[in-house]
Write a structure and sequence with these properties.
globular, alpha/beta, 6-stranded parallel beta sheet, about 400 residues, 11 strands, about 10% strand
Amino acid sequence: MSPTSHLRLLAIVLAESVTLAFLVLFSPLRLLRRILAPGTFQTLWTGTPIITMALKARAERSLGFRSRSLVTHSYYITDAFDVDLSALRSLPVVGYIVPFAVFFWACLFVDRLHFYCDRGILPTASRGGFNWAEFLAYRALRIQIVLWTYGSDVRTRSLTLALGTPNCCTECPDVAHACICDQRMHSMRFNRMAREALAVFSMGDMIEYTPGSRNDLFFWPLDLDAEGGERYRPAYPHPQHGAPLRVVHAPNHAAFKGTRYLHAAIDELRREGVAIELVTVEKVPNREALDIYRSADVIFDQCMIGFHGYFALEGMALGKPVMCFIRKPTDYLLHPEECPIINTHISTLKEDLRQLSLARDGLADIGRRGRSYVEKHFSTDAFAQRLREAYMDLGIMS
């Protein structure tokens, strides 16, 4: 066993033993904090560094809570979190202390914790999931837990295959690792998490894996006012007759998004004389990616998963027509009657692209409808209103 593995194992043992030992200490300290600072209610969004985490924390702040987002590691896509400890987490030895420091701080000061379904604060022995000593501590300290989903934290192979072809598992290159995959393991974890949580919020195809969840929050807000409105300033397509139709695609997980089908469709169309080009965006920061998206005539999200991603919402915010396979529009979309996503399937992809290339004059109208849809339903304020209603239903707001 490597020194790193020894340190990880030691960290896990400490997590489970020290947690229980500190409960005796933290209970009176939390009581003292409430006496000295009555009326304050702090919430923390942490765990997996999903791009919308900080925006959800901001939406919760607008409801009157003291909310912040905190991550101990981040991806290349964004580091826009209220607190980012990834620099400390990468240091030898110190990095193993960081999760414990965050955990003890949360036990003392935090009243509500928001997690995704694959990660808590403390290290665990297995990939994904929670250190259950955490939940024991939160229950004893009366800290509320709210769970959210983002996709691979809840998807399992058997349920995915049952949805029909195509799906996430159709051409998966990393079975048993890309998602939770194992249905028995997921059921055991999810049932236990759901019992401990105040609520589980899910949406889109993720609702297939989260029985009993609340599915109407559609929790991928966009900050349409960022940078004075410039970040998502719409750039509606202008017909340039003679110029190729410019399709932009961000294949961060190509096997799950049907990227090879897109390449094949465009190659065939070009051989048939259709003026069309493909621009792919990979492993670049979100701000840089947005500049490339802005140059598109059409945004292609995916044709396999069955639900749109954040990329699709950003495309609509920029005023672009968006192509995406939506398996169950009525169940998966927010106000499906208003959503202008072009529902494309592997079997229709080539002809859908051909028709878009022939109807260039209509692309701007689709783009305007997409921008209006996002402004109405996916702004931070719109999400905050849905969150308010959920909190009122749960009895944690009046």
